[in-house]
UniProtKB/TrEMBL annotation, chains A, B:
Protein name: TetR family transcriptional regulator
DNA-binding residues (ranges): 32-51
Pfam families (alphabetical): TetR_N (PF00440)
Domain HTH tetR-type residues, every copy: 9-69
DNA sequence: TTGAAAACTGGCCGATCGGTCAGTCAAGAT
DNA sequence: ATCTTGACTGACCGATCGGCCAGTTTTCAA
C-alpha cells in the first residue's frame, strides 16, 4: 500500500479520460453515466464506485486545468499590476491551448457550474484572472477582458480543425488587440 | 376567419414569451415543456397542441432574430466588400442588443443547433455574416471575426447587469479593436 | 492456501423527460 | 335546440436519467 493500487488508478484514469472525450463531444448534460461507463469499458455502477456522482466525474475532468489556473492566480498575485497583466495574458493562452479539451467542456457548463459549490474555487479564480488580464480597475477594461475570455473559450471548440500553434497565434493576436497590448 | 382566432394567437404568444424567459434563465435543455406550460398558465398538452414539439418552441423563440439576421445578410450581399463589413459590424451589434435575450438563449444551444435541420438557414446565415464581418478571405481575419462573435455572445449574458447603451458601446469598441476598424 | 479487503457488476428504484390520445368544454352556425 | 369545430386538458406511455445495493469476482498479504 505504499503506492495506490494500480487497478484503482488505471480504472479511475480511464473513466476520466473517456468522460473528457464525451463531455467535449456532446456536452456535460447530454452525456450519461452509462455513456461514460461503456466508453471506459466498465459498468455504470463502477463509475459510481470510483466517484460519488456525476459532478464528481466532472470535477476530476476539470481538476488539472483548475489546479493550473489556481497556480497562475497565485503567481500573478505577487507581481506589480503591469507585469501581472502580461503574465496573465501569456500564461492564460498557454493554459487554454494545453487544456483546450477542458476549455471546450467548460463552455457548456458555465451557467451550471456557478451553482455547484464544489466549483466555487475555480469560479473565484476565473474572476481574479479576469481582473489581472484587465490590467486596471476601469470597468471598460474589465469588460474587454471578459470579452476576450469569452472569445477565447469559443475558439477552443472544434479541436480537430486547428493546430495548437495556430490556436496560440490567433489567441495572442486577439487578446493583444482587445487589451491594447500589441 | 378573416383574422386568426385571437385566443389562439394570445396563447401561442404567451407560450413563446415564457419559453424565452426560461430558456434564457436556465438554458434550453434544462427547461422542460412542463416548466413552459406552468409559466404560461396552461397545460403541457396545450403547448404541444400549439407546437409540434420542443424544437418547434425553440424555433418560434428564435424566429424574429433569425429573420433580422437573414435580412442583414441579404442587404450585405449587394454591397462592396468594405461597405458590407461596416454594415455587418454596425447592424450586428444592433441586432445583438435588440435581441440580447435570444442571443443569450443561442449561447447554450450552439452545439445542438447545428444538427437540427430546422435551423440550417440560421446557421448558414451566421456563417455568411461572419464572412462579411471578416472583410477579407484572410483566414486570420475570419478567425478574428469568429472570435469577436463569440465574445459578443458571451457579453449578452446576465442581461440585467448592463444597459443596452453600455452593451452597445462595449461591443462597438471590442469589435473595432479586434477587426482593426477603429 | 486461504481469507479478508478491494474492485466490480446486474438489477432495481423513483423521478422526470418529451410526447400521445381520448375526451371535455365553450362558442358560433344552422 | 342541435351540431360542429377549435381550444384545451388529465391521464398515461415508453424511454432514460442518476443513483443505490446486495452480491460476485479478483487480488493479494499472511
Amino acid at each position: 500500500m505504499a503506492v495506490t493500487t494500480p487497478a484503482r488508478e488505471r480504472t479511475r484514469h480511464e473513466i476520466v479520460r473517456q468522460a473528457m472525450n464525451l463531455f467535449q463531444a456532446g456536452g456535460y448534460n447530454a452525456t450519461s453515466l452509462q455513456d461514460i461507463a461503456t466508453a471506459a469499458g466498465c459498468s455504470k455502477a463502477t463509475v459510481l464506485y470510483h466517484f460519488s456522482g456525476k459532478p464528481a466525474v466532472l470535477a476530476a475532468v476539470l481538476e488539472p486545468a483548475a489546479a493550473d489556473v489556481a497556480e497562475l492566480v497565485k503567481a500573478a498575485a505577487q507581481l506589480p499590476r503591469a507585469e501581472a497583466q502580461e503574465l496573465a495574458i501569456q500564461r492564460f493562452i498557454d493554459l487554454a491551448v494545453e487544456h483546450r479539451g477542458v476549455v471546450d467542456v467548460l463552455q457548456d457548463i458555465l451557467a451550471v457550474i456557478e451553482q455547484m459549490p464544489e466549483f466555487g474555487q475555480l469560479v473565484a479564480d476565473g474572476m481574479r484572472l479576469t481582473d489581472y488580464m484587465a490590467g486596471s480597475d476601469d470597468p471598460l477594461e474589465r469588460d474587454l477582458a471578459k470579452f476576450a475570455i469569452n472569445g477565447l473559450l469559443g475558439e477552443c471548440r472544434h479541436s480537430g480543425e486547428r493546430t495548437d500553434d495556430d490556436l496560440r497565434r490567433l489567441c495572442d493576436i486577439a487578446l493583444r488587440r482587445l487589451l491594447r497590448r500589441a
